[in-house]
Design goal:
- The chain is an alpha+beta fold.
- It is 64% helix and 18% strand.
- It contains nine helices and six strands, in the order ααααββββββααααα.
- It is elongated, with a radius of gyration of 27 Å.
Length: 360
């Protein structure tokens, strides 16, 4: 059995690697097309372009592994069936569940590998890609890459402090603006929030203090105030925190910090749980594919297996997207929202495998 397991597992990993390479090439082609305007506009060098896309490869790998495992399983079973190997193994008394073990073991290994890439390499790749795009290609100051919390910027005599960036840079929270000349503080403006409305910033919940040379000050409060900040939303958008670009541990620390501050952490919690569920989708895909792969091979229809792979993959990602959306909307708890797809398709896979074993 060890020889058979190595043979089946080796075929699965080989074909999964080929499928992952094809998906990755397609992913890169689409990404290149989306960023073509940026590359041409800023006349990016070939080295910067290569580095930009290379830095995003770890994240792309985590996205393509589940579908690659699904297609690798189906392709392997079709080829084995065409050579009569599945029939021979079945005649030897081996149930489908036992034949599926090498595939499930290989997929579990890929799931763990994907989780490691997601935790270690992908966040660093995102950081590098952001630096290449904003600093090396767009020629912006490295200060624009600061984190989305506790952000400091200087514009002439004004010093701007933002507690948190939200809404893709169109909303700034806990805003503080200080103006100083020749070492003397002239004014200090604080606002609960600043929103980009139309073509200008509107500060709300404003308190302004104007300081006289003798140190006294006058305080004025306003509900709303159009304020001429030199920076537009694009200056803050790249600094916004994105859960996909953070590691699981970093995201957990941020959730704890924001929860202690009384801030809403629903979106972050859904993202945190999603990081635990996505790698294990790779382990579920062969469980789904195995019953269909055996039938596809028996019928001699490779196209049938590919169609099933696309259909099952699309269905899984659709359920995953719906679950995450419901979680962010507060309809489902974060753990259930992130694991809904795995739970449904895992149960479906086990059911199909049991039925296929009885039918074959």
């Amino acid at each position: 059995m060890r020889l058979i397991d190595r043979h089946l597992g080796g075929e699965f990993l080989r074909l999964t690697a080929l499928a992952a390479g094809a998906f990755l090439a397609l992913f890169l082609a689409v990404d290149l097309f989306e960023k073509l305007r940026l590359i041409l506009k800023y006349q990016a060098s070939a080295g910067d372009v290569v580095l930009l896309f290379a830095a995003r490869v770890p994240w792309m790998v985590t996205q393509v592994i589940p579908m690659a495992a699904l297609l690798g399983t189906l392709s392997s079973l079709v080829l084995l069936a065409r050579h009569g190997e599945i029939t021979a193994l079945r005649c030897g008394g081996l149930p489908l569940g036992r034949l599926a073990l090498p595939y499930l073991a290989g997929a579990l290994g890929l799931a763990l590998l994907g989780g490691l890439v997601q935790e270690v390499l992908a966040p660093r790749g995102f950081a590098l890609a952001r630096e290449v795009q904003e600093v090396r290609i767009k020629k912006r100051s490295p200060t624009t890459l600061l984190k989305a919390e506790d952000l400091w910027l200087r514009s002439g005599p004004r010093y701007l402090h933002v507690g948190r960036v939200a809404e893709h840079g169109r909303e700034l929270r806990e805003v503080e603006i200080a103006e100083a000349r020749e070492g003397r503080l002239l004014s200090r403006v604080t606002a609960a929030v600043a929103r980009w409305e139309g073509d200008r910033w509107i500060l709300r919940g404003v308190e302004e203090r104007r300081f006289a040379p003798d140190g006294t000050f006058v305080t004025e409060r306003r509900e709303a105030w159009p304020y001429p900040l030199a920076e537009g939303p694009e200056e803050f958008h790249i600094a916004e925190f994105r859960p996909d670009e953070a590691s699981w541990t970093e995201l957990g620390r941020r959730i704890a910090k924001q929860r202690a501050q009384g801030l809403d952490t629903r979106d972050l919690e859904v993202g945190w749980w999603a990081k635990t569920s996505l790698p294990f989708a790779t382990a579920i895909m062969p469980l789904l594919a195995f019953p269909f792969g055996v039938r596809a091979g028996r019928r001699g229809g490779a196209s049938f297996g590919i169609a099933v792979a696309v259909g099952l993959g699309f269905s899984y990602w659709l359920v995953l997207a719906v679950g995450l959306s419901l979680g962010k909307a507060g309809v489902l708890p974060a753990p259930l929202a992130a694991w809904l797809g795995n739970a449904l398709f895992g149960a479906l896979g086990v059911t199909l495998l049991v039925r296929a074993d009885r039918a074959v």
